Amino acid sequence: QDQYTLWLRYTPVKDPALLASYRRSITAVAVTGSSPTMEVVRKELGNGLNGLLETPIPFNGNASLMVGTIPSFPALRDRSKELGTEGFLILSTVMNGRKVTVITANTDKGVLYGVFHFLRLIQTAQSIGDLNIVSVPRVKLRLLDHWDNLNRYVERGYAGISLWNWHTLPDYLDSRYTDYARYNASVGINGAVLNNVNANAVILTPAYLQKVAALANVFRPYGIKVYLSARFSAPMEIGGLHTADPLNDSVRQWWQGKAKEIYALIPDFGGFLVKANSEGQPGPQSYGRTHADGANMLADAVAPYGGIVMWRAFVYDPKASDRFKQAYDEFQPLDGKFRENVMVQVKNGPIDFQPREPFSPLLGAMPHTPLMLEFQLTQEYLGQGTHLVYLAPLFKEVLNADTYAQGKNSTVARTIDGSLNNHALSGIAAVANIGNERNWTGHTFGQANWYAIGRLSWDNSLSSEQIAEEWIRQTFGNSPLLVSSIKRMMLASHEAVVNYMTPLGLHHIMGNGHHYGPAPWGNDLPRADWNPVYYHRADTNGIGFDRTVTGTNALLQYRPEVRKQFLEDEKYLLWFRHVSWGQRLRSGRTVWEELCYKYNEGVDTVRAMQSTWEQLKGLIDEERFQQVRMLLAIQAKEATWWRNACLLYFQTYSRLPFPANYEKPDHSLDEYKQLSFPYAPGN
Ligand code: BDP
């Protein structure tokens, strides 16, 4: 079982009746069109169907499966308007007296998406007898952001080194580049930012742009555009200028020239992603200019070619009272000041990809600016490369959240897909969890998160459960026991990590730098808001960060309805309030008891996942079975470590005993504090 093939395994259909019915309905295939994308379509259908149906399917004129753009099917002309530029139609119909299945779209790219969907139906054992599926992506830009450095080190990467071998590009084109594009296309991802947001200007030099162009050429037939992270000070570092001031004429001209050079090599270059004035990155504020000045200058440079700028709102100023409020304070006043081709890219929460965060208040506060939502697939704060955490429930929680920006039902999903504020641009970007490991993501279940973000960016109405089920069937097979057991594990896993790391709204209590393991005691970094104690604020009275009027009042950044919800929902308790240890919660338990309960619940869930997995022995190939079994054992050990270290530490403030029925920590607090991880994958 080669895990390289991800969810496109195309193993033979097992159920004999189903196999027979598929064979009856797909006797021959006809694909019209000859573009590179249509060549991909032919190849995919050939491999897919031959594998799934275990028989060579002829490509000829008497086809029962007909594939091509709308002009190939005059009878379907009217359906064109339903499909946009990327959507597709899969239709069971009768043509020339024959029963056929048609896969069509307005563009070749749309046809490719349709073909992947059709193959997915077979892989997941669906009936294909009577289809009338119209599927159009809700979000225009569905991107992976790679935090890959030019030396191939991946920031926060836990799956090997970068896929991009800059040294051998552009002459050597690893077949893996094609496979990467193919897997992305199969879930609807249509763009990739190739390099780290902590950018190196060298990527913009002529030699490197040739390399970027080579990748763009490989990706193009799969509908994937390339984008680059741009370093704001590039005009100084590689352009010989003395300033990077966005209002300086030479600087503006330099970027215009750079854009011209890029588009000459890559006519469909997507645009720039920028991290500015954040964590030491250069930016317009160094020249007394605003984020809008910086973004607009770059936007003007790429506008003539249809390019865009994704300007990140991940900023936090050491002088501010509460890091939570920073992005909003800096960006909300700029709403309406950006060019049309600028998107402001906002992380899902106000701090930084914690196991659970309230949605970022900016998501309800910039109606005049198209917002790009940034998620993180790489599990920097969620167990990194070893924990099984299925992220779709986290994504859904954010997308379904209601900002009330324009009354009820102003969800984050509607903000992001552009429908709430009528934006032409819309997008979701996910920080990739991919490296050069044979199975791409290291942990087999990391593949599910890559899969999920593609599917959800395409269609945010899909449920976590539907996506999990699709992925399991394609990755492990259609056996009902497998599907139900693995689904149970996946659906429980996000709440589990929240519980064993940061229950009840705790956040940012991990180890410094590498972010590996618990360190709620952390208090020795120069900036207050880098230290865990800043976030949990435990003292002998209680625990939690008061963000109400009596505290930093960060809550004011949300609409009244949202404030009320966050104050009522105990999932977010310690995000917004400092509560006494003895306060009773809805469960009847006190805050201290509830903390103990939740940490234990998290550990118990991981142990239950382990025993569920054990029952699958023999139903899964030995290689994957053992791999996941070992990783689950690490996860169980680390969940216990998080629980014990955190509870022992918080107990020094609560000064209350552990409730009798729970397992006691097997080490002292000091022992936990002394653990050190000099070579943990860091930043
Ligand atoms: C944090 C990471 C850091 C990134 C930063 C960012 O710890 O490595 O550079 O976010 O998003 O999550 O820019």
Considering the chains and any ligands shown, give keywords for the structure:
8-stranded parallel β-barrel; 3 domains; binds beta-D-glucopyranuronic acid; hydrolase; 5-stranded mixed β-sheet; Alpha-d-glucuronidase, C-terminal Domain; carbohydrate metabolism; TIM Barrel; polysaccharide degradation; Chitobiase, domain 2; 683 residues; Xylan alpha-1,2-glucuronidase; alpha-glucuronidase activity
How would you describe the overall organization of this protein?
With 683 residues, the protein is of the alpha/beta class. The protein has 3 domains: 3-135, Chitobiase/beta-hexosaminidase domain 2-like (Chitobiase, domain 2); 141-466, Glycosidases (TIM Barrel); 497-674, Alpha-glucuronidase, C-terminal domain (Alpha-d-glucuronidase, C-terminal Domain, Alpha-Beta Complex), CATH 3.90.1330.10. The chain has 20 helices and 15 strands. The strands form 3 sheets. Strands 6-7-8-9-10-11-12-13 form an 8-stranded parallel beta barrel. A 5-stranded mixed beta sheet has the order 1-2-4-3-5. The radius of gyration is 26 Å and the shape is globular. The two termini are 33 Å apart. It binds beta-D-glucopyranuronic acid. Beta-D-glucopyranuronic acid binds next to loops.
Strand line-up across the major sheet? 6-7-8-9-10-11-12-13
How far apart lie the N and C ends? 33 Å
Give the low-pLDDT segments.
none
Class based on secondary structure composition and strand pairing: alpha/beta
Q: Characterize the quaternary organization of these chains.
A: single chain
What is the CATH topology of the largest domain?
Answer: TIM Barrel
According to CATH, the homologous superfamily of the largest domain is Glycosidases
Proportion of helical residues:
25-40%
State Rg. Answer: 26 Å
GO molecular function, one term: xylan alpha-1,2-glucuronosidase activity
Catalytic activity: Hydrolysis of (1->2)-alpha-D-(4-O-methyl)glucuronosyl links in the main chain of hardwood xylans
Enzyme class: hydrolase
Keywords: Carbohydrate metabolism, Glycosidase, Hydrolase, Polysaccharide degradation, Signal, Xylan degradation
